[in-house]
User: What shape does this take?
Amino acid sequence: MRVDALPEIRQLSLFAGMRDENFEGLMKAAYLQNFPAQVELIDEGDQADFLFFVIEGCVELYAETSGREGVLALVRPVGSFILAAVIKDAVYLMSARTTEKSRILMIPAQNVRDAFEQDDGFARSIVVELAGYFRAVVKEYKDLRLRTGVERLANRLIKYHLNQGENGTVCLPCDKKTLSSILGMTPENLSRAFGTLKAYGVKVEGSVVRLNDLKSLTTLAKPNPLIDDYRT
Amino acid sequence: MRVDALPEIRQLSLFAGMRDENFEGLMKAAYLQNFPAQVELIDEGDQADFLFFVIEGCVELYAETSGREGVLALVRPVGSFILAAVIKDAVYLMSARTTEKSRILMIPAQNVRDAFEQDDGFARSIVVELAGYFRAVVKEYKDLRLRTGVERLANRLIKYHLNQGENGTVCLPCDKKTLSSILGMTPENLSRAFGTLKAYGVKVEGSVVRLNDLKSLTTLAKPNPLIDDYRT
DNA sequence: CGGTCGGTTGAAGCTAATCAATTAGAGTGG
DNA sequence: CCACTCTAATTGATTAGCTTCAACCGACCG
Assistant: This one.
């Protein structure tokens, strides 16, 4: 691939500390591909062959065991995934599929590891990146462990509301089936949870949600920066 | 502290790539302290002031929100905790308390960050360490999300059995109250889960558990290396 | 028009938490 | 050594939370 094909990649914090020549080397080895929706990009258990970036579209990370499946995260532009497996030269712990037509950048894992060995700035950027990932999963874990389904939904709505400009409405980032899985519940349960939140001023209109009584919703949700704030 | 006071620390993979003079600098700044049981070492939400190591004893990492509490992990010698918060110069996401009389090594966070900036080998060791932590939490998350309480217990017993030499018995690493919280259930529920596992050859004798029918227990548990194997 | 799919609703059942009571064990002091 | 106490652990009854199965609705599409 050409080095300057994707200037937004070079801007990522992951590559902030990397020397130009090493970045160029990575990009030359990389593949940029378009995928339709619902394509399996990786299968948990497979050896980590590539580091992935979502340039356009959306990718869903999920896992399954003995018949049960759960979505762990959605990755949107410009986000990476599977960095830890690539660094450890291990198998993927999560599967990934596109949820919509997507443009994906793939860097061969060995090139990433070589760059990690050779480029001190890159190594430091990876530290910060992984520390952030780690803390994000810890928060997800706490969310799932310490809250009921209704509370998780309420807090998620408040979080989206903050990220979307606090104008009283929220646009859901995906269909409700996917949202339910992200929140660790069934679609039926999400539907009922929205029903419960009616009493707290939550009005669902398709993929738009109105928050007409943020105060009472917040009282119910008890948002906690150590779980909900992406910055901490 | 004297540099050679704790040779086992220098052996840790976290310091494997570190230059001697930098390690000495860290150790000189470090504190080694003895604590009785049930001492709060850190409080979630506080700024990360130290990187911690358990030299002797045991530390419990836990979190709470709106009245509910859950143990996330036990740390035993020689293990570190709170590395991600130290590196990101952020607040702790988990609280920590000693569960028994313990000897704890504390390195001031700023010294760790300075060493991270100055020592390339240390930076790379941190990458590997954090990647391992990240994958460990992802596995915990999957365990909690995709399995019932009985399944989590069954798989945990099988894991302990493997780690303890596969001789048909398992020694529980902590009291049952703590174990229940690690497994994400109440003590009552753990007790009932053990009751359920009787039918699969599991016999509880205090803190020792006999696995008399590993085959049927395994059939029930359906262990998955992508959740249960600490190596992958 | 029938078909599929996302979403909702209802009923039933399961898993787990809660509350309450009891038992078992470890340690203490007489 | 025995009663006493404190806590861990268990057991039973009840309730809450969530899943499952089934039916249904409405939108979109061939």
Chain B has a mean pLDDT of 94. The first strand of chain B starts at residue 31 and ends at 35. Chain B touches chain A through 50 residues (CB under 8 Å). Chain B has eleven helices and eleven strands.
